[in-house]
Predict the structure.
Amino acid sequence: MTKLMLSSMILAPLVGAICQTVVSKPAGARIVAFLSSVFSALIGVFIFLKGVGQGANAEAFSEQLSWIGSYAISYELSVDGVSRIGVLLISVLFPVLLASEWRREVAGRGLNGLLLILQCALLGTLCAQDLFLLFFFWALSSIPTFFLVGVWGGEGRESAAFRALVVSAASNALFFGALILTYYSRDPHSFLIRDLVGGQFQDRIIQVVGVDLSLRGVAFTLLCLSMALRAPVWPLNGWFSKLIDEAPASVAVAISAAGVPVAVQTFARLSHLLFPTVFLDFSDSILAVGVVSVLVGAVVALGQRRLTGLFSNLVLIQVGLSLMALGSRSSSAMVGMVYQQFSAGLALAGVGLLFGILFAKFPQLSFLGKQEPSPLAGASSSGLVMGVSLCALTGVPGLSGFVGQSLILMGGYGRSPMVLLLGSVSLFLLMICLFGIYRALFLGARVGQHDDEDAEAQAHSSELNVREKAFFAPIIVAMVLLGLYPKPFLDVIRPAAETLLSSLSPPPSLPAPAMPEGSSSSVNPEKSESGT
Amino acid sequence: MSSFAQLLPEAYLFATVLGLILGESANFGEKLRLVLPTSLLGIAGAAIQTVLAYQGGPAEFFGGTIVLDGFALFFKLAFLVLAAIVVCSACLGEEIAEGLRAEFCAILLLGTIALMVAASATSLFVILIALQLAGGCGYFLAGFNRDASGASKAALKWFFCSLFSGAFLLFGFLALFVLAGTANVQEIHHQLASHGVSSTVALFSFAVVFLGLSLPLFVFPSQFWVPEVLEEANSPAGAYLVLGLRAGAFAVATRIWVAVFSVPGASGGVWAPLSGWDWTAWIALSAGLTMILPALLAIRQTHAKRLLACMAVAQSGFLLLGLLVLEEVGFAAVLFNLLVDLLAFGGLLFVLSLCMGRGRSAELKDLRGALRGRPWEAVLFVVFFVAWLGIPPFAGAIGRFALIGAAVRREWFTLAFLSLLAMALSVGAAGRLMLSLLHLGGELPSSHSEGGIELSSERRGFLLALLIPLVGATVFANSLLQWAGQSLKFIFR
C-alpha cells in the first residue's frame, strides 16, 4: 500500500494542474484543484504521522526506478525526519492557499494550476534522492513562480517577475554546474545522493578561465551561491523584496513559507552529505551571514512603512536564523532550524494571507502613525490571527516560534556567545517593531468612529468572513499546539538531524580528510553540543 | 538497379511533389484542396520506405557515393518528421495563403529530399550539391510571402549567405580532393591517415570547410545572418531553416569532421584529431562565442522572431559542444537535442505564428496579451519554450545536461561555465517574450481587435501531436539516447 505513496503525493497536484486546462467550468476546475491538493496533503500528513514515535526506524517510503540508464539517472524518492517536516508544511499550506484564492475571478484556473505545479515541484525537491531528479523538481519550481507573479501580480509585476526569473535562472545554472561537477567526479558516475555521501568523489584541481581551483570547493561554492539566490540572504535579497511587493498574497506566502524552507533544507542536506569537509571550512562564514541577515532584517523592519516590506524582512530573518543554525553545527540548532521552518512557515502564512485580505479591503492600508485612526481598530478576528502569528514569529513562549528560536540560539551559544547576543538583540528589535505595528493597526482609534454608520461598516469589513476563518483556523491551532506540545515533532526531526550532522565527521573506514589548521577542534558536533 | 531501389524514399517524396504540382495545375477554384493529406501521405510513405530499406542493415550504393547507415537513417527520419511539421504549420497556420500552400509544400519536399541525400552522401561533391539544393529551397521558402517586402529581403540575404557557404565549401572540398585524389570521405580519411599530411595543408582545408559549414550551422563567425533572415521570413520557412538546414549541416559536419579529420582513439566510441593538430580548439572557441554572444543580444531584442533567432543561434553553440568532444556520448547528445528541438521549436513557432495571425507584426509590444484568456495556447507555448530552452521538466533539460556533461568529461570547464551563463541569459530573454504574450492587465494594443488566433480542432491536434512525443521523449529519454547512440555505430567503418 505504501509503495507509491510518495509518487502519488507528488504527482496528484500535477494531475490537478493538467485538469485545469481540461475542465471547462471554472467552479468545477476550482474544486478539482482543491481536491487534488487536499489528496496530496492527506498523504503528506499520513507520511508524517507514520514517522511519529518511530525515531530513526521510521519508514522511508522509498521508491526506486531506473530512468535514464545511460547517465545513471534514476527516479528515487524517500523521506527522512527533516524532509517529513517539510512535506507536512507544504501539505498544510497549499490547500489553505488554494482556499484563499477561491473567489478569484480573473484567470483563477491558471493561478490554481500554477500553485499546484509549485506544490508538486516543492514536494519532489524534498523527496528526491537523485541529484538530477532533485534539480529537475527544483528548477521546475521557478517556472510557476515567474508566471504567478508576472501575470497575477501588482502594478510592477513584469519587472518583479523578470528579476525573479533572471535570479532563478542564474541560480539554476549554478546548481546545474555543481551537479555536473559532482557527477563527473565520481567513477562510476552517479547522481544518487547515497553514492556520494561523505564526499565520496575525487577532489582534484580544475582549470576555469586559466585559474586552478579545487573541484569540491567550486562545486560547493556554486551550490552556496545557487541557494543564496533562491532563499533571500543578505545582501542578495533585493529581488525578493521586489517580488513580495508585487506578488498576490497567496503567491507571496507560497514562495516565502514553503519555497524558502525547501531551499534551505536542500542546501543543508546537500552541503552536509556531499561536501562535509568544505562545509566545515565554510561554516563560520555561513554563521556570520546568518547573524548579519537576522540583524539587518530586524533593523530594516523597524524602518518599514509598507506591510509587504515588513513581510520580506520577516522572511530574511527566518533564513538568517536557519543559516545561524547550520553554521553552529550543533544538534539542537539543527533540530531547532527544522522546527522553526515549520513554525515560521505557518506564522508567515497567517501574516501574509491576512495582509492580502486586508489589502483587498483597504488598498491604502499602511503603518499608520500612533495618533492616526486605523480601519482595523477593534477587529477581533483579524486581530486574533495577526496577534497569534506575530507572537509566533517573535518567539513568545507558548507558541511555536519559541521552541525553534530557543533551540537555534542555544546551539549558536555553543559556538560563540556573540551569536546568542546578536540573535537575541535582533529578535528583541523585531518584537518592538511587530508589536508597535500591531498596536497601530488594531489597538488605536477607529476610522470614522464619530460616525456610527461608517464605523459599523468599517468594523464589519475589517472582520474575517466564515471562509476566511475556516482557512486560518488550522494555522492558528497548529501554532498553538506546536508551542504547547512540540515533542512529537522534535522526536521526528532529531534522528535525521543527527544523521546529517554525523556526516560532518569522517567515517572510520576512510582516512581523515585534510583539514586546515585550527578547525579540527570544531569538527565533532558532539563536542560543540557539549557546550549547550 | 538495387542502388536505385535504395532511393525509393526520395522517389516517393519526388512523386508527391509532382502530385502537388499537377493537382495545383488542375485546380479550377475548388474549395477542397488536398495539399495537406497528399503531402503527409507522401512523407509517411517515404518514412516507411526508409525503414524498410534499412532492414538489411547498413549498405553502400552508387560505388560508395551514398550510404545507408544508422546515422543516415536517423537523419532521414528526422528530416521526414521535420517535413511533416513544416507542412502542417504551413497548411494549418495563417501565414501562407491558401492558394500558395501547394507550391510551398512542393518546394519544402524538394528541400527535404536534398537534406536526406546530404545526410547519406559520402562523396564531397554530392554533399555540396545537396546542401546547395537544400539552401536554394530555403531561399524560395524564406521569400514566399511575395507581398511582404521583408520576405524578399530575407530571401536575398539568405541567397548571398548560401552562395558564400557554397563557395567556401567548394574551395575546401577541392583542397581535400587534390590532397587525397578522391572525393569519398572514407577514402580521404585512409589517404590522410596512411600517408600523413602537413599540418598547414590540413589546417587550411579544415578552416575553409569550417567557414563553409558555419553558415548553415549558425555558428560563429557566420551566425550574423540568422536573426536578419528569420525576422522577415514566414514561420514555416523559419522552422525549415532552423530545424532542417541546420540539422543537415550538423549531419554533414559530423561525417566530415569525424571521418576525415579524426582518427579512432584507443577505446571504442572516442576519436582524436588527425595528425596531432588539435582543431577542436577552434570549434571550442566558436562554440563559446556562439553560445554567449547571441544570448546577450537576445536579452535586448524587441522583435519576437529576432529573439527566437538569437536563441536558436545560441542553441547551435550548445550542439557544437557535443561535436567537439569527439565522443560517441557527445554525438548521441547532439542527435537527441536535434530531435527535441524538432518538436519543441516546431510547436513554438506555430503558436507564435498563430499569435501573430496574418500580417501582424512580431514586435513584442504588438504581441502583448496575445495569449490572454487562452489557457490551451498559453500552456502549450510555455511547454514548448521550456523544453526548447532546456529547463526541467522536459527532455530539453536532459539533452542540455548531456551536452554540457560531454564538455565537462573532456575537461572543457570554461566552455561548460559559458554554456551555463548562456543558458541563464536565454531564460531571461525567453521570460520577456512569455510575459509579453501572457500580459494580463492593462490595455491591449489595437491590433488585437483585428481577429485573434483561433485554435481549431486540427490545430489543436497538430500541437498535441508535437506535445505527446515531447513528453514521451522525457519519460523514455533513455531509449531515445540509446537509439541516438546506436545510430553512430556504422558511420565510421
Summary: The longest strand of chain B covers residues 59-61. Chain B has a mean pLDDT of 84. The two ends of chain B are 24 Å apart (CA to CA).
